[in-house]
Amino acid sequence: MKKGYQITFFSHEDDRHRGRPVAEFLLGLCRELGLRGATARLDAEGYGRSGRWHSAHFFELADRPVEVTVAADEAQAEALFARLRAEKLALFYIKSPVEFGVVGEDD
Predict the structure, then answer these.
(1) Residues 2 and 99 sit within 8 Å (Cβ to Cβ)
(2) Is the terminal CB of the chain with fewer CB neighbours within 10 Å at N or C?
(3) 101 contacts 28 by C-beta, under 8 angstroms
């Protein structure tokens, strides 16, 4: 068992960074930094910092909210946030202390 953080980033399906969807960029960055897993999830509706409503209406399918969640130890979390600052990527996030590990055999 490890102690660290569950970090969830929030963006929208049509948000881009360096020409790629933000969620795809985050997943790739987490993999590059050696984090053992990250998950992206499309949500049905929500609103962000601006108060603007985002949802999966028929004509606005690319406007759905996206969450990317990862578990990271202290060093990984610091490396991740340092890299995001260097990339100048502005994202809302939630960072909560957690314990995490693997049950059973670790492949």
Answers:
(1) yes
(2) C
(3) no
Q: How confident is the model at residue 43 (pLDDT cuts 50, 70, 90)?
A: confident
Answer CATH for 2-100 from 3.90.10.10, 3.30.70.120, 3.10.450.50, 1.20.1250.20: 3.30.70.120
Residue type, 26: L
The phi, psi pair for 37, rounded to 5°, reads 180, 150
pLDDT in tens, 13-37: 888 999 999 999 999 999 999 998 8
Q: Where are the beta strands (DSSP E) in the chain?
A: 2-12, 16-17, 20-21, 38-42, 45-47, 53-55, 65-72, 92-100
Return the sign of the alpha-carbon dihedral for residues 96, 41, 39, 104: positive
Q: Could you tell me the residue ranges of all domains in the chain?
A: 2-100
- Position 53: which residue type? W
Is residue 23 a contact partner of residue 105, using CB atoms and an 8 Å limit? no
Mean pLDDT of 37-61: 68
